């Protein structure tokens, strides 16, 4: 029987869905275009991997491992649970998240990692053709998920000279009648910024005036350096509904265990029942996150000692100081000292490196010569910058900073000095006249 009878084509024609075709993670693509070949004579240092466990120097607290091992022996760690998560796990998250405002187990939906939480929040709050505002620079999972769903992504700017605060005017200017949500990522990947209460209030004020809900990506909650304080955005909102997305990924140093959550904050009952129900419905798409983690979660959240978190943050902060101090010496670079999370953004003054057309070329060449890989700003929609991770072991970070500095010195000298007049060149060539050389470098950068 011909397949035409049922309206089918004669030829095979199997296509990917529009969801699949519209889902695109630019980071992998950009990194692939770099065509990097680390120098085989130097150990490879990937300062690119945003996984705090990648080097093995940061280990989870022992009680976390114990909780998982004990739980694995229980039959109840193997069965299906409610798709929004087991009550005891949701209750534990509610208690753990008391700093966000009043939270009950009913406000919590457990997810498979924070990215799944963001996926859920976006798919419930925005329709195809509506727009969602995300930060620039920003972690592009928000773009990947949104665009896959047919949501238009628009950007508001962060201000590098003001510790990456939100440019409130730019935020306001992006809002229109089709804006379904604003995503705020605090503390930030890639910037390492931590917003003050006042600044969060200013952001909420914009959202309130235009009646736009907020999705707060707080996967780096509490990841702040001394002298900085983490404030949950939801704790300051009087009317703006906030869907807060977080999880155990970073703070507990277990990214692969994939346990995250969305918490609904809706003090004025603005989100219709429809939105709450929508989140419940969407959670049925994967029948809930893994039960082993859920069952161990109350112990993980309640028993992990504060000293474990403090040690982690002390380490990352000292790494930030090390990288900042070292990279400030690199001609042509401007590191921006972070206030939290686990990253640092570094401006590459590309005009000081005329050999390279853009930061991508700079970064690939640096990897090919020095075997140090950083993530180009383009991956965060922010050219002329690069991001490094701070969780690598201290000696490796120090070595990486020296190599980056060496690379800058090599390239800034060659390229700039060719164009400079004879007198200046002779100063630099005079190895004894180190001071003049340093002054010269300062001027160039
Ligand atoms: C800002 C931000 N949001 C979300 C995620 C995703 O977290 P998860 O691994 O829990 O899905 C990450 C991961 O690096 C992140 O940096």
List the helices and strands and how they pair.
Elements: H1 18-22, H2 26-33, E1 45-46, H3 62-72, H4 87-96, E2 108-111, H5 114-125, E3 131-136, H6 141-148, E4 152-159, E5 165-166, H7 168-174, E6 179-185, H8 197-210, E7 214-217, E8 242-247, E9 260-265, H9 273-283, H10 291-303, H11 306-328, E10 333-336, E11 343-348, H12 359-370, E12 372-373, E13 375-376, E14 385-389, H13 394-419, H14 422-429, H15 434-444
Parallel strand pairs: 1-12, 3-4, 3-6, 6-7, 7-8
Antiparallel strand pairs: 2-9, 4-5, 8-9, 10-11, 11-14, 13-14
Helix pairs in contact: 3-10, 4-10, 5-6, 5-9, 11-13, 14-15
The structure holds pyridoxal-5'-phosphate.
Residues 50, 113-115, 139, 141, 185, 189, 217, 219, 247, 249, 255, 260 line the site of pyridoxal-5'-phosphate (PLP).
Subunit structure: Homodimer.
EC number: 2.6.1.5
Keywords: Aminotransferase, Phenylalanine catabolism, Pyridoxal phosphate, Transferase, Tyrosine catabolism
